[in-house]
């Protein structure tokens, strides 16, 4: 992976995304003993970092592939991201969503022009439905996190953070499917100056932590976490990147996630989703480790269902 490839990715997608702001807080610095820089992907188009990877994947298609469209399976942010990216580039988007996906997310996909196919809420049903669309329409399948073009698009988050603050000691990112932390690890390796990448993960969905321990991709048998965007598992494309370039993963309890989210709402005056709070929760849990360090924290998105959000 070289600088030019990442710079080309950034140049390619920049007309279609926001270079999101970086917030700081003296109070949160004092609370943690570190100098914190919050990269606010909650202000990204469609409300999450996933717009970056989605747009990069669509832009890499040939003219013929664009005409046939793209397909993915997702219950949330990537469904919205691919729909919007495809709409912006006049490409049909076929989105497989579980039949129990929140109405607010289905409405957003439809609003962005995505064509929804409902399926049973399990991975086999999702993959089967997507495969049928690929066969019928000739559409290109784009995985939400285990796709190199998606990972490279996601890497631009870390690039922007390091461009603004080149002397970061660490970047902390949430871990779900692995697409964000893999991209962050690549950008940190290429553009950072001995900048470590650390993951934050819910204890009750700690497949990535266990995968690094065992050296193989592990699965979750329980995913009952408020951080609904982090319930998926790693893939065979992003896992080797994570193994090579991610320093370690910190697991956090549900109450710690909620407390971190509450603090960020209160102190930064921004709306973030629970998955975004996991990285900050990891810093709060391990203050001694981060003490006196310059730490970038990726706030991955802000797509909150306000009907179900809870702070206790």
Describe this structure in words.
The protein has 312 residues and is an alpha/beta fold. It has 2 domains: 3-47 and 147-299, Rossmann fold, CATH 3.40.50; 51-141, Rossmann fold, CATH 3.40.50.1100. It has 14 helices and 10 strands. It has a 6-stranded mixed beta sheet, with helices on both faces. A 4-stranded parallel beta sheet has the order 5-4-3-6, sandwiched between helices. Strand 7 (170-174), helix 9 (179-191) and strand 8 (196-202) form a beta-alpha-beta unit. The chain is globular, with a radius of gyration of 18 Å. The relative contact order is 0.16. The model has no long low-confidence stretch (mean pLDDT 93).
Spatial order of strands in the largest sheet: 1-2-10-7-8-9
Question: Can you write the helix and strand succession as a string?
Answer: HEHEHHEHEHEHEHEHEHHEHHHE
Largest sheet descriptor: 6 strands, mixed
The overall pLDDT, averaged over residues, is 93
CATH architecture of the largest domain: 3-Layer(aba) Sandwich
Span between termini: 43 Å
Uncertain regions spanning at least 5 consecutive residues: none
**Helical region count?**
14
* Radius of gyration, CA atoms, in whole angstroms: 18 Å
Total number of distinct structural domains: 2
InterPro entries: TrpB-like_PALP, TrpB-like_PALP_sf
Protein name: Pyridoxal-phosphate dependent enzyme
GO molecular function, one term: pyridoxal phosphate binding
Keywords: Lyase, Pyridoxal phosphate
Give the arrangement of secondary structure elements:
Layout: H1 3-13, E1 22-23, H2 26-32, E2 35-40, H3 50-59, H4 63-68, E3 70-73, H5 77-88, E4 93-98, H6 103-111, E5 115-119, H7 123-137, E6 140-141, H8 148-164, E7 170-174, H9 179-191, E8 196-202, H10 207-214, H11 238-245, E9 248-252, H12 254-268, H13 274-285, H14 287-290, E10 294-299
Parallel strand pairs: 2-10, 3-4, 3-6, 4-5, 7-8, 7-10, 8-9
Antiparallel strand pairs: 1-2
Helix pairs in contact: 1-8, 3-5, 3-8, 5-6, 8-9, 9-11, 12-13
């Amino acid at each position: 992976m070289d600088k030019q490839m990442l710079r080309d990715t950034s140049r390619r997608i920049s007309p279609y995304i926001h270079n999101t702001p970086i917030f700081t807080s003296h109070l949160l610095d004092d609370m943690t003993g570190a100098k914190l820089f919050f990269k606010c992907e909650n202000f990204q188009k469609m409300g999450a970092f996933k717009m970056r990877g989605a747009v990069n994947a669509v832009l890499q298609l040939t003219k013929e592939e664009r005409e046939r469209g793209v397909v993915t399976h997702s219950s949330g942010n990537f469904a919205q991201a691919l729909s919007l990216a495809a709409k912006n580039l006049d490409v049909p988007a076929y989105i497989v969503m579980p039949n129990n996906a929140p109405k607010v997310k289905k409405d957003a996909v439809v609003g962005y022009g995505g064509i929804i196919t409902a399926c049973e809420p399990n991975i086999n049903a999702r993959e089967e439905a997507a495969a049928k669309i690929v066969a019928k329409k000739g559409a290109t399948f784009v995985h939400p996190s285990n796709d190199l073009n998606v990972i490279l698009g996601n890497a631009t988050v870390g690039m922007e953070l390091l461009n603004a603050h080149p002397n970061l000691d660490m970047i902390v990112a949430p871990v779900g499917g692995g697409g964000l932390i893999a991209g962050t690890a690549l950008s940190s390796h290429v553009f950072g100056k001995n900048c470590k990448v650390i993951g934050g993960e819910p204890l009750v969905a700690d497949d990535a932590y266990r995968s690094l321990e065992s050296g193989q991709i592990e699965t979750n048998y329980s995913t009952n976490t408020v951080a609904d965007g982090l319930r998926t598992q790693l893939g065979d494309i992003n896992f080797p990147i994570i193994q090579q370039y991610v320093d370690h993963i910190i697991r956090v309890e549900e109450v710690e996630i909620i407390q971190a989210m509450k603090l960020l709402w209160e102190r930064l005056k921004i709306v973030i989703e629970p998955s975004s709070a996991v990285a900050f929760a990891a810093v709060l849990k391990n203050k001694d480790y981060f003490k006196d360090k310059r730490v970038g924290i990726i706030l991955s998105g802000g797509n909150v269902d306000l009907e179900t959000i809870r702070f206790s």
